[in-house]
Design brief:
The protein is α+β, with helices and mostly antiparallel strands. It has a single domain, classed as Cytochrome p450 (Orthogonal Bundle), CATH 1.10.630.10. It has 19 helices and 12 strands. The strands form 4 sheets. Strands 1-2-8-5-3 form a 5-stranded mixed sheet. A 3-stranded antiparallel sheet has the order 4-12-9. A two-stranded antiparallel ribbon has the order 6-7. Strand 6 and strand 7 form a beta hairpin. The relative contact order is 0.16. Bound molecules: protoporphyrin IX containing FE (HEM). The site of protoporphyrin IX containing FE has 23 residues, from helix 14, helix 15 and helix 19.
Amino acid sequence: IPGPTNLTLLPKIGSIQSKPLDFLLWLYQTYGPVSRFQAFNTPVIHLADPEAVKHVLQENHRNYSKDTIQYHSLAIITGNGLLTNDGTGWLRQRRLAQPAFARGRLSHLDQIVIPSTQSLLTRWRQLPEAHLIDVDAEMMRLTLEIVGKALFSIDLSKDAPHLTEATLTTLDYIVYRVKTLTLIPTYLPLPRNRAFRKALKTLEEAVSQIIQQRRKDKVLGEDLLGMFLRARDEESGEGMSDRQIRDEVMTMLIAGHETVASALTWTWYLLSTHPEIENRLFEEVHTVLKGNPPSTKDLENLPYTAQVFTEALRLYPPAWLITRKAMGEDEILGYSIPPGAVIVISPYVIHRLKEHWENPEAFIPERFARDPEGTSHRFTFIPFGAGPRLCIGNQFAHIEARLILAGMTQKLRFTPPPKAPVVDALVTLRPRNGLHMSVVHRSSN
Ligand code: HEM
């Protein structure tokens, strides 16, 4: 497999950590769609080819586990939840959790998303003119509020602000671990570790308490937690243990908010710098909604809104890195893959391949006109992964983000930031030091 020698890699080592996207693009441009480098004793194989992606994520997925630093770091919070679980345990959980994400259930998502969006709009309207808003931080809080309500019908921002803070603290810690590639055990009494463990304990205790309360009251609830509590295995009739439910709840809390927030933040940035696209989006939502907040049903009549969101996911896929470990030997595009090799697939790189995308660097929502969610671009468009481990929340994310996008665009637009934000590839893609923009409210409606 082509790739840099340890000596060629030496001057690049810093950039693996500080600019991983540039590093992966460099690997692809210099060594082609399958390349290899050595990280300590482990061979790392970068795949930038749709057939290779299909092979690992779908055709031979059983040979590839989530036994990687990326998922071990996340598992500190999510335990044995769906995102980090592997093998038969994963399949059982996936079957039990799937009904909670059925289309019919997601159609009620507007009842959560719209009030949260409306209260944010009201708050922003009271700000002085030209006041700079950190859109990145605001989207994080908005999506956390939404996922909290969807999970356990609690408004984390109002009823449990300490849980909001605890969630953000735990996530910051994971970002720090991923960024510094640290393997320091969390139990060492360092200040950062202590703060993290305290926050995680607060969260876990709160979630466990909610689960026990529901079991005690025999009121399971209609939210995601309610669905997890009543899920039963078709064959054995068994449900999830409290521990498993807790891990799934923590997983949804973590996987279900920063990703959507990142996608929205980049969408707002792209719209602010492409006024002609922003105008067309406004025309669509204004014509269809006539000043009213959107409902989930309206989304069918807002195809351009979907195209804009999908195209933003292409340019800035929040989950920019997917990793796997090869358990047995394998062959990919004629190259032999040794057992133990770490496979790295980057949606960011795949979405910018010149062989598969025309003018890949440009923001052109119309490229998804015939397929507003991009599902037909399988393996060249993988913001939600692919194969059996495709994101369970992909429809949830689409509905939530498009409702927010339509609802907010109808009422306001953002002025572009003076400088293009630097993209930080952390757990998701985030603008370095936030995205500070001012709001222009639309007065006509
Ligand atoms: C898995 C991306 C929103 C829950 C994944 C994977 C990706 C992804 C790429 C596959 C990872 C892999 O194969 O290694 C995204 C993006 C989102 C988003 C870009 C938003 C724009 C959500 C939401 C939820 C969620 C809203 C839950 C409410 C999960 C879970 C998994 C997952 C539980 C693991 C599924 C499994 O392995 O069975 N996501 N996600 N995600 N996502 Fe999402």
